[in-house]
C-alpha cells in the first residue's frame, strides 16, 4: 500500500450505520461520514432535494428489510 | 484502496450487527455534470450491476433507449431491468469508469455492484476477519 492509499483509507471513516436505521426500513437515507442519519425520505427525489441544501458530504442508501436475510446474487 | 466493511443493525436490538461490503461510489448523469454519492453492495455472485431505478430518475438518465434484460435470483423469479452503460467512480478515487447497470423499479435496495464492468476491472479481496475490502485496478 502506498502512502497515498493509506491516507485515502483513513479519510473514509464510516464503519457502522447509526442505530436509527432500525426505524427506517424501506426508506432512502442520507448518511454522513460517521454513519449518522442526517435526512430520510420515502423517495429518492425528495431526499435529494433536501440534501442539496447541505454543505457537507453525505451518502445515500436505501435501508433494506433488516429482519430478512439478504441474498442478492443473480444467477 | 481499502474500504472498511460497514456494520448495519439488525431489527432485533439483541442480535449482533451485520458487517456488509458496502463501498461509497459516485454515479454520474449522462452529461457528467451532476452525480449522486451512494453506498453500493459488492456482490461477486451477480452477473451485472443492478441499481434502483429511482437513481436513474433523479439523475435524469434516459432509460427509453436502454436494452431490457431479465435477471433472476435463487428464488427463480424474474426481474426485468433496463440496462444502460453509465459512468461511476469510487469516492475519493480519480478514475471514472463505464459500467453497464440494470435499473430495476420498486426494489428494496439502492445499488449492487456485480461482475460485468466492475469485478472484471478490479482485483477485489474480501478480508472478513479484518472487516476490510481491498480493491486494486487490474
The helix-and-strand class of chain A reads alpha+beta
Question: What overall form of chain A do the CA principal axes indicate?
Answer: globular
Spatial separation of the terminal alpha carbons of chain B: 13 Å
- Count of helix runs of chain B: 2
Low-confidence residue ranges of chain B: none
Low-confidence stretches of chain A: 1-8
The helix content of chain A is 10-25%
Major β-sheet strand ordering of chain B? 4-5-10-6-9-8
Strand order across the largest sheet of chain A: 2-1-3
| Rg over C-alpha atoms of chain B, rounded to the nearest angstrom | 15 Å
Task: Kindly state the percentage of residues in helix of chain B.
Answer: under 10%
Oligomer: heterodimer
Count all strands of chain B and give the number: 12
Determine the number of helices of chain A (DSSP H or I, runs of at least 4 residues). Answer: 2
Shape of chain B: globular
Strand content of chain B: over 45%
What pattern of helices and strands is seen along the backbone of chain A?
Answer: HEEHE
Biggest sheet features of chain B? 6 strands, mixed, barrel
Q: Largest inter-chain interface?
A: A-B, 38 and 45 residues
Q: In this structure, how is the largest beta sheet of chain A organized? A: 3 strands, antiparallel
Amino acid at each position: 500500500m502506498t502512502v497515498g492509499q493509506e491516507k485515502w483509507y483513513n479519510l473514509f471513516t464510516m464503519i457502522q450505520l447509526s442505530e436509527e436505521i432500525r426505524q427506517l426500513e424501506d426508506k432512502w437515507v442520507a448518511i454522513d461520514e460517521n454513519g449518522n442519519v442526517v435526512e430520510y425520505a420515502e423517495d429518492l427525489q425528495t431526499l435529494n432535494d433536501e440534501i442539496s441544501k447541505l454543505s457537507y458530504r453525505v451518502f445515500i442508501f436505501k435501508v433494506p428489510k433488516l429482519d430478512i436475510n439478504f441474498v442478492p446474487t443473480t444467477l | 484502496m481499502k474500504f472498511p466493511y460497514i456494520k448495519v443493525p439488525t431489527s432485533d436490538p439483541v442480535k449482533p450487527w451485520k458487517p456488509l461490503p458496502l463501498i461509497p461510489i459516485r454515479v454520474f448523469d449522462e452529461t457528467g455534470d451532476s452525480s449522486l454519492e451512494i453506498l453500493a453492495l459488492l456482490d461477486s455472485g451477480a452477473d451485472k450491476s443492478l441499481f434502483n431505478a429511482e437513481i436513474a430518475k433523479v439523475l435524469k438518465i434516459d432509460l427509453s433507449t436502454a436494452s431490457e434484460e431479465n435477471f433472476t435470483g435463487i428464488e427463480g423469479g424474474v426481474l426485468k431491468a433496463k440496462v444502460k452503460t453509465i459512468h461511476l467512480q469510487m469516492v475519493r478515487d480519480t478514475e471514472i469508469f463505464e459500467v453497464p447497470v440494470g435499473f430495476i423499479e420498486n426494489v428494496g435496495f439502492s445499488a449492487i455492484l456485480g461482475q460485468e464492468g466492475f469485478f472484471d476491472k478490479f482485483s477485489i479481496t474480501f478480508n472478513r476477519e479484518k472487516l476490510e475490502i481491498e480493491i486494486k485496478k487490474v
